[in-house]
Amino acid sequence: MKAWRVHELGDPSKVMSLDEIDQPTPGEGQVLVKVKAAALNFPDVLMAMGMYQEKPPLPYIPGVELCGEIVESGQRVIGSPSNGPGAFAEYALMDKDFAFPAPEGLSDEKAASLYLTYQTGYVGLHRRAHLQAGEWLLVHAGAGGVGTAAIQLGKAAGAKVIATAGGPRKTQVCADLGADHVIDYTAEDFVPIVKEVTGGHGADVIYDPVGGDVFDKSRKCIAFEGRLVVVGFTSGRIPEAPANNLLVKNYSVVGLHWGLYRKHDPALFGMVHEQLTRLVEEGHVDPLVGEVLPLDQAPQALAKLADRSTVGKVVLVP
Ligand SMILES: NC(=O)c1ccc[n+]([C@@H]2O[C@H](COP(=O)([O-])OP(=O)(O)OC[C@H]3O[C@@H](n4cnc5c(N)ncnc54)[C@H](OP(=O)(O)O)[C@@H]3O)[C@@H](O)[C@H]2O)c1
């Protein structure tokens, strides 16, 4: 089968090659899946560069999210490959207990996009931040994969959503997804705008995949008893929150590492998948696929993701 493999750490557009390798053989508790669509995630870029918390042994097949067909049964499923990456290939192995039924109404490309970012969003907003209907939710990088999911999930939860994004094309994407207020944070300071839009209250929940200056500024417009969710650091800088600032302003900084629930609460994945499937059926969730490319263009697709030019999800089709 054809599979992309990272042979050395570095820029994923340079260190991957499309190799002809043997189809994998399922072990105990695994199924062989024919990949129908594989969605890109920022961690694909970080992992290839050796900058992600998971460091698979080289060479490895990248890609952490897919929609595929179980070869034995023909069932269409979504999820991550066994042991993390492995989706940018014609076939992949999945753990049987973590291969979830693809919602019938979704195309392969959209179904592939329903897993990682939506599970992260659901767990982040509900389990970690306890988002309530009527609260103000501020989503940073709202036009990205994680951001588009958070806007839809926030609206579905009955929150009032403010989204930031870089440039008019991206703020329009956020507005089209239902954000109540959008801010181009590359052109305007979002702090006074959030304060004004919320009538001085501030954002109750802030969902931050960017970090750096965006995190620092978020601390200035968070509500009393607000929850600032640390999702990622696409800006490249890991920020810090001074403890005295948490004390005087009565807010919480909430860490989010969705993948860690595989160890601490594995049943959560299936429960969240059920909720997401329901939200798809009710029309609250509809993954935004910005671009579909053939599998052989994986390096170009990852380069676009790294240079900040994509909206929603980018999906590869074998
Ligand atoms: N905590 C978890 O469990 C978990 C799970 C999944 C993903 N994540 C993290 O969430 C983050 C977003 O992932 P994603 O797949 O949604 O990525 P994505 O689709 O590429 O979106 C990331 C967005 O970050 C913004 N950004 C700001 N500064 C940037 C920079 N210097 N370089 C690139 N992008 C920049 C860009 O939006 P603007 O142009 O609008 O600023 C970009 O669209 C990543 O850090 C990822 O590791 C965390």
Q: Helices and strands in order, then pairings?
A:
Blueprint: E1 2-6, H1 12-15, E2 16-20, E3 30-39, H2 42-48, E4 66-70, E5 76-79, E6 91-95, E7 100-101, H3 108-112, H4 116-128, E8 136-139, H5 145-156, E9 160-165, H6 168-176, E10 181-184, H7 190-197, E11 203-208, H8 212-218, E12 222-230, H9 243-249, E13 252-255, H10 261-264, H11 267-281, E14 289-294, H12 298-306, E15 313-317
Parallel strand pairs: 8-9, 8-11, 9-10, 11-12, 12-13, 14-15
Antiparallel strand pairs: 1-2, 3-4, 3-6, 3-15, 4-5, 5-7
This protein binds NADP nicotinamide-adenine-dinucleotide phosphate.
Residues 41-43, 116-117, 120, 141, 143-146, 165-166, 170, 209-210, 231-236, 256-259, 305, 308, 310 line the site of NADP nicotinamide-adenine-dinucleotide phosphate (NAP).
